[in-house]
């Protein structure tokens, strides 16, 4: 490639990056100004005590260019009017009621909530804190924090039928619901991460032996070639008890 062509590519790359960059501006509350974390600690001592256990605490900007870029007020907005009013809830931003302050940083998640199949967060029927602990109070959160604590218990709060104990369980549930589902949103029905048999074949694939005809797919000792042409493992009408069964070890009903 010529130097001119290379420079053109570099210029295009820089322009592309510059047009997609995002500037996160501090949250605003009419008439309020930023007061700092210590003012919050005077009333919310328990939350402040737990907060170092949260991954959100890792975001610490010393001498930030703009106020409100770190600490409590980066998510809750300037707190002066909230304090002056004696703690009036309407004078502080509550991400548990509205996800806009979460989306300031989590733009990828905001995009997923706009996919055709999604949990109804942007519609106001759920909030981020229904599944996530932003302050770090739950010490059982995994190393990444904030998400899907204690295997499937977060999902079980709403999806009791799918996560209840079964005599014959689907082993995938031991790994967690997110093995098959994207909890924020997906283009696929039921928020599945894939909408074809390849979703199941990620776990249920096997090397085809020398006696297997070309183009045939065996799972266990059963030829599944024709079945897979009819749809996914459950939409084909076979393994319809996909989360677990009390009567059939192959999850057929």
Topology:
Blueprint: H1 3-20, H2 37-41, H3 45-50, H4 73-76, H5 80-84, H6 100-103, H7 107-113, E1 117-118, H8 153-156, H9 160-163, E2 168-169, H10 172-175, E3 185-186, H11 198-204, E4 218-219, E5 222-223, H12 225-228, E6 244-245
Antiparallel strand pairs: 1-3, 2-6, 4-5
Folded structure, characterized:
This protein is mostly helical. The chain folds into 3 domains: 28-93, no CATH class; 96-195, no CATH class; 197-207 and 215-253, no CATH class. Helices cover 28% and strands 5% of the residues. It is built from 12 helices and 6 strands. It has a two-stranded antiparallel ribbon with strand order 1-3. The termini are far apart. The relative contact order is 0.09.
Multimeric organization: single chain
Distance between the termini: 61 Å
Spatial sequence of strands, sheet with the most strands: 1-3
Mean pLDDT across all residues, rounded?
82
The helix/strand series, from N terminus to C terminus, equals HHHHHHHEHHEHEHEEHE
Biggest sheet, open or closed, and with what strands and sense? 2 strands, antiparallel
Figure out the total of helices.
12
Question: Can you count the beta strands?
Answer: 6
Taking pLDDT < 50 over at least 5 consecutive residues as the criterion, the unreliable ranges are 1-22
Strand content range: under 5%
Rg, rounded, reads 25 Å
Pairing-aware structural class of the strands and helices?
mainly alpha
What is the approximate shape?
Answer: elongated
* Helix content bin: 25-40%
Instruction: Give the domain tally.
Output: 3
